[in-house]
Specification:
By secondary structure, the chain is an alpha/beta fold. It contains eight helices and eight strands. The chain is globular and about 45 Å long.
Length: about 260
């Protein structure tokens, strides 16, 4: 499951008993050698789909981690790419792995639930981050993303179709979520990371409630399920009007939060 260059079981255990922020600081140097990192095949498929609906000038990678998504955005955005994450360790790796140049790349340490920007972007993306937010946090998160997009701007992210209810994969995901719930019930600080906490229909309703119009774009490279539905879709939520819901006001730039130059 992990490469020889990846984290040891002891390192993963220490991470899992930390807060989300501290855990990812610890994991950052070896994160790209774990299955938690979004595969290049998904990043490439999303970038190709975005090129078909672009062009875009300024892109934001929400919860950018070590910068793999931001690196993919460099092929989609013409002027700038910004990665935002609350883990200093992950951002340090991102600065090393993503080259500077055109478009310009910058990094900001901040919580996605309080994004420190005005409506500066016409594209926002996120890869594999929604499992770090509880269902009740989604309205505020989506309102924040809405608030930093220009009118008509897009929020895009891939969604994998859930496995069959009676399947080994589904059992493993449910088992993982159960372990995390038990861990969070008996240990502090909590480590929020769930695979099956948010249902697809709930996700779409919360996006619409935050002021987005939602479209679904199949990613054909990953094939279809037995019922003919795509295995992987790209959700494209376009900003409509003013944000509604909690956290909908544009907060501007937070004091003391400054972009970190790439490289």
């Amino acid at each position: 499951m992990f490469s020889p260059q990846g984290p040891s079981l002891r390192e993963l255990a220490v991470q899992a008993l930390s807060s989300v922020e501290r855990g990812y600081d610890l994991l950052a140097p070896k994160f790209d050698q774990t299955p938690f990192r979004t595969p290049d095949s998904v990043l490439d498929a999303v970038a190709a789909a975005l090129r078909r609906i672009g062009p875009f000038e300024d892109g934001l990678d929400v919860c950018c981690g070590t910068g793999a998504g931001a690196d993919a955005l460099r092929d989609v955005c013409e002027r700038s790419v910004t990665g935002v994450d609350f883990s200093a360790g992950m951002l340090a790796v991102a600065r090393e792995r993503v080259p500077s140049g055109v478009p310009r790349v910058s990094w900001v340490r901040a919580d996605a639930r309080a994004l420190p920007f005005r409506p500066l972007f016409d594209l926002a993306v996120s890869f594999g981050a929604l499992g770090h937010f509880l269902p009740r946090e989604l309205p505020g998160l989506f309102a924040q993303v809405h608030s930093v997009l220009r009118p008509g701007g897009c929020f895009a992210f891939p969604v994998v179709s859930p496995p069959r209810t009676v399947s080994l994969v589904n059992g493993m995901l449910l088992g993982f979520d159960l372990v995390m719930r038990v861990r969070n019930a008996v240990w502090r600080p909590p480590f929020v990371m769930y695979y099956r906490a948010v249902r697809f229909g709930h996700l779409l309703r919360e996006l619409e409630g935050a002021g987005f119009r939602v479209d679904l774009h199949p990613l054909p490279d990953f094939g279809r399920r037995r019922d003919g539905s795509p295995r992987v879709r790209m959700v494209v939520a376009r900003r409509l009007g003013q944000p509604i819901g909690p956290g909908g006001d544009s907060p501007g730039r937070l004091p003391g939060v400054r972009p970190l130059p790439a490289g």
